[in-house]
């Protein structure tokens, strides 16, 4: 991060030039976001004003760029937070779907609870681009309304929407409960390996009893996902050690040292575990007499 800050601080371009450079980034096929990163790093009044003015433009591309600028001004300082959140919430009613997408994504970065109700209202939007933005926007809120929408989105027809919703339920919230666990359990049957992996991690974080058998099942497939290994490390069940060691012996790691290291990390975590591994959700606990 320090090297990035030095690089961004040394960039000679004006903020106006960076806005135009970011337009090119948004239309590029790769994921380069250096120009917007510098604008966020600067995060001053000038950058805020550029973003604010763009959100008022008649051009929808301008409004999308403006929303993207307002997302992370000042990085962790969260500069101009109140003003930015208000502008971004207003953009959720924009007639252009791409603008709504960027506004929702930006509100996810801002992580302000005031955005939850208007985002939830868009959870059934006809455009998957908007629904993906909504999913991102709601993904870090330990809020019942937000979580109910994420559960709904975890069943979406669009793979990207479903994937991010499952990730949010699995890893971005701390709440537990039957509805959350059942949504994660449903994800174990998803045809997409990444979504199944997120579901495994979510259940492993909550020490759900179902995850052990599902991990063994997942490891019988031809392609073993890194997410399933991360779930095993999260679960840290000593009974997984022989299964992990079998994977260690049977898989070819010649081109993937990282994968081999993660399996070893999972083995070590499982060996170190003592005491109770699994627990019920709060809603499933037996009442005390």
Overall 3D shape: globular
Number of domains: 3
- In CATH, the homologous superfamily of the largest domain goes by the name Leucine-rich Repeat Variant
N-to-C SSE string, H for helix and E for strand: HHHHHHHHHHHHHHHHH
How many strands, what sense, and barrel or not for the largest sheet? none
| CATH fold-type name of the largest domain | Leucine-rich Repeat Variant
Radius of gyration (Å): 22 Å
Low-confidence stretches: none
Mean pLDDT over the full residue set: 93
Percentage of helical residues? 55-70%
Please report the first level of CATH classification, the CATH class of the largest domain: Mainly Alpha
Structural class: mainly alpha
CATH architecture of the largest domain: Alpha Horseshoe
What features would you highlight for this structure?
289 residues, 3 domains, Leucine-rich Repeat Variant, 64% helix, mainly alpha
Structure report:
- The protein is built from 17 helices and no strands.
- About 65% of the residues lie in helices and about 0% in strands.
- It folds into 3 domains: about 80 residues, Leucine-rich Repeat Variant (Alpha Horseshoe); about 55 residues, no CATH class; about 100 residues, Leucine-rich Repeat Variant (Alpha Horseshoe), CATH 1.25.10.
- It is globular and about 60 Å long.
- The mean pLDDT is about 95.
- The chain has about 290 residues and is mostly helical.
- One of its GO terms (molecular function) is oxidoreductase activity.
- InterPro entries: ARM-like (IPR011989), ARM-type_fold (IPR016024), PBS_lyase_HEAT (IPR004155).
- Pfam families: HEAT_2.
- This is HEAT repeat-containing protein.
